[in-house]
Amino acid sequence: MVPSQRSKLLRYARRNSVVSRADLSRLGIHPETANRLTREGALSRIAPGQYRLLGGNITEHHGLALAAAAVPKGVVCLISALRFHDVGTQRAHHVWIALDRKQRKPVVEYPPLQIVRFSGDALTAGIEEHSIEGQQVRVYTLAKTIADCFKYRNKIGLDVALEALIDGWRSRRVLMSDLDSYARICRVHNVMMPYLETLVA
């Protein structure tokens, strides 16, 4: 028996945190099927052309999954990456996303995004892929995130960068060689060096 568009959509929504217009088109599902399931209360519309299963498996990193679905070329960075790695005490009110300087700014209703522009190795180095609620999410490693925090210290605060560095080092979750390498890539080696020397003194 060929599955109905309704059952196909619900099955897909159970495996993925977000269903987009592109997903509907790829699966051969008419958009009205998603609208009907939304009216019936099976799906929730979270943004134009984006749906999720009501009562689905929602994790503490739900916003990251939604952001990755909306901006697949972005990389979770800075405060949001610190929260993902469970380092520091900062809370992210937006999802911080790194994008190439040449990429157009995405229009996303939800979750709220804080876009920062990276280029070259600073954009491409230190990316990990994690599965969150069935969605592949790209996140910078902790060592890369710490270097980024120093690079953007005027935007997020030097205290945030220092807390991340100290917390990451004391919990033995970063290597000095990695911190040194990413500090050079992010061009903050001279800024970070006094703090790195203090850690190993």
Oligomer type: single chain
Q: Find the count of extended strands (DSSP E, 2+ residues).
A: 8
Overall 3D shape: elongated
Number of domains: 2
In percent, how helical is the residue content?
40-55%
Provide a count of the helices: 11
Q: Biggest sheet: strands, sense, closure?
A: 3 strands, antiparallel
Uncertain residue ranges? none
Average pLDDT: 89
Proportion of residues in β-strands? 15-25%
3D structure, described in words:
- By secondary structure, this protein is of the alpha+beta class.
- The protein folds into 2 domains: 49 residues; 139 residues, no CATH class.
- The model has no long low-confidence stretch (mean pLDDT 89).
- β7 and β8 form a beta hairpin.
- The strands form 3 sheets. The chain has a 3-stranded antiparallel β-sheet.
- It is built from 11 helices and 8 strands.
Notable characteristics:
2 domains, 201 residues, 3-stranded antiparallel beta sheet, 3-stranded mixed beta sheet, alpha+beta, 48% helix, 11 helices
Q: Quick gist of this model?
A:
The protein is an alpha+beta fold and 201 residues long.
What layout of secondary structure does this protein have?
Layout: H1 5-15, E1 19-20, H2 21-27, H3 31-40, E2 43-47, E3 50-53, H4 62-70, E4 75-76, H5 78-84, E5 95-100, E6 113-118, H6 121-124, E7 127-132, E8 135-140, H7 142-151, H8 153-156, H9 158-170, H10 176-185, H11 189-200
Parallel strand pairs: 5-6
Antiparallel strand pairs: 1-3, 2-3, 4-5, 7-8
Helix pairs in contact: 5-7, 7-9, 7-10, 10-11
